[in-house]
Amino acid sequence: MPIVKIPVIQKFGIISAKHHNELKKKLLEKTEEHVEKTCKRKPLEVTEEFIKQFNAAEEVEDQERMLDTARKILHRCKRQTGFHLKGSGRCGSLQHAWTELILMVQCTGKIEEEALDILILSIDQAELNPDHITVLFFIAESILYRICCDAAQKPYLLISEVKLAKLGFLTFLRLYTFHLLGHLQHYEEQRSKLSIYIKALPVCKTTYQSYPNVLSSIHIMLKVGEIMCDLGSSQETNNFLQEQPNLKDKLSLDSRTAETDTFLWHALLIWQHTQNNSTNLHDVSKHLLLVKEHLHQENGLDLLLALFILGDAAKIDISCLRAFVEIGSDFLSTISQFQGQHSTVSTSSWPVDIISVYTVVLADICLHGATAEIQKRAFIGFQSENTWNVEITEACLHGLLCFVPPNIPDSKQLQWLVHYCTVYNLVILCHELQWDDMRDSLRNAICESLDVWKNEQSDTQVLDAEKVAEAEVNGPTNPFISASAKIAAPESPAFFQHVGYRLASALSQQFLPPVVSYVPTPRKPFQRQVPRKVPDTREHSVKKKSSRLSLRQELGVSSITPPLHFFTRTSMELQKVVEDQWSKELGIRFKEEEEEMKKEEQEKQKIEEEKFNEIMRKREQKLRKTSKPYELP
């Protein structure tokens, strides 16, 4: 039987089997450690595991470590969004930052509210870019999930719910604007996912009946979602479409772009005139009042866009503010008439949404108006300086605070709605004005109005608006404000400051013709004609014979210099005046210098004489002689 020799290969040298197994085990452990290090997540990456660890941290050291990491992530997101540059961050980094911020909202405590504050301000400031649509759909789904599955199940209102409602309002308002521009055609998958939450959202309306500011955001999210997702479940929407069949093309998702409302188109036109400093602005603002009957239609979404756009124009021009206040007064009087005639209007969401948005925009004008006069008129109005007249019907902030509807059915409900929205925004306005020392008078007037109103008010349901607003503005300390600074400007979102400008700039490019700015062409300098010399009658016969001038005549003509231009003469005369004035001033200065030199010489002589007299006095005292040094005794 042949002997077969199997070759033995010792990779680690000639060692025993026991040491060989131990060495292989150590190498395997090192390989696993290397794989774990390479596959380990980044230290500042937002994942589900990080959120679970943050919410489950119980020990103090773990809580501080997770809180520090979360704040670093928020700082990075804030930098990527271009927070201090009014939303001028890069598109890719902006989408990434929004995604991380909406994930950080799942963290409990201070981080949740701080992430909401940054996200609200960033979405308010950012431009309307179609590249943001996917992220906006993701944010909308996250908000609806939190409201339907978490927030609405709690027995009390949290500040995070108020901020979630604000964030949802801004997000859905942008999505509706993209719908008007025709950019949502290729997002069928996102619309189908969103429709699941939209169907569950009407159940949450009863939870927020006592908080109109949150309830209006729920209504707007529901309306925009039904239009985008082609859901006709709302009875109000169905009735409205049956009454106005012309809007079917507008609500169709297959159409490229939706048609604009007449009132919205006029608002865009006014905004365009304010941006270009047009001289026809006053006439255009008058035309807006001719189409105010569109305010009474229940197509509230276009009206909300128009209110934001008019509010941005009213910050710049006071005539636009006057038109804005007149529109608010007309709306209040009309809704009072409708409420007296039809009891179904009181149950509609249309007045709640318009009044809530109108008061927010008016408070934003009072805070961010371009001039002090605009800020003042947004508070006290234009009719009368008597700000304590309770019969005032003007729709300024103080007029809304003193609003008393006529004796009609459900008048207390309308009065409570107007007072709640006004008080809520006035409290936030007072909080924002405390950081500006230049506007103490405006803040004192607002605080005094609130104090007088609270002394006369007995409805506890209305007084809840003050409590909600104070809880919102006095929330957790912002980590981005240094602790060493005693006074620092707040960074929590008070009002929607930039949304009107962003919406108007996007919609005007689609629905208005481009405006060519007037550039004056350079005018040619006016050349004055040289007066012709009248020929002498005696030389006429000679010139008639010889049409060509002689050499002496040609030299004489060439030596005549043309007259100078008007501006050239003016500048030369001005230069002469300046030279004469300068020569006079030099002469005066020379005289003053000579007088000063004379005075200095006289002072020097006096000092020398005093020194000499002092020396002589000391000599006399010492030698007891009155003779001069060069005189013989």
Helices and strands, with pairings:
Elements: H1 17-39, H2 48-56, H3 60-80, H4 91-104, H5 110-125, H6 133-149, H7 159-181, H8 188-200, H9 212-228, H10 235-243, H11 248-251, H12 262-275, H13 281-290, H14 300-314, H15 318-341, H16 350-368, H17 372-380, H18 397-401, H19 411-433, H20 440-456, H21 460-473, H22 499-511, H23 537-545, H24 551-559, H25 566-623
Helix pairs in contact: 3-4, 3-5, 4-5, 4-6, 5-7, 6-7, 6-8, 7-9, 7-22, 8-9, 9-16, 12-13, 12-14, 12-22, 13-15, 14-15, 14-16, 14-22, 16-17, 16-19, 19-20, 19-21
Provide structural commentary.
With 633 residues, this protein is an all-alpha fold. Among the domains are: 260-476 and 495-514; 563-633. It has 25 helices and no strands.
Structural class from helices and strands? mainly alpha
Q: Give Rg in angstroms.
A: 41 Å
Please tell me the overall pLDDT.
77
Strand elements, count: 0
* Cα shape: extended
Uncertain segments of ≥5 residues (pLDDT<50)?
A: 233-258, 342-347, 385-392, 476-490, 526-531, 539-546
* Amount of helix: 55-70%
List keywords for this structure.
mainly alpha; extended; 633 residues; 25 helices; single chain
TL;DR?
By secondary structure, the chain is mainly alpha-helical. The chain contains 25 helices and no strands.
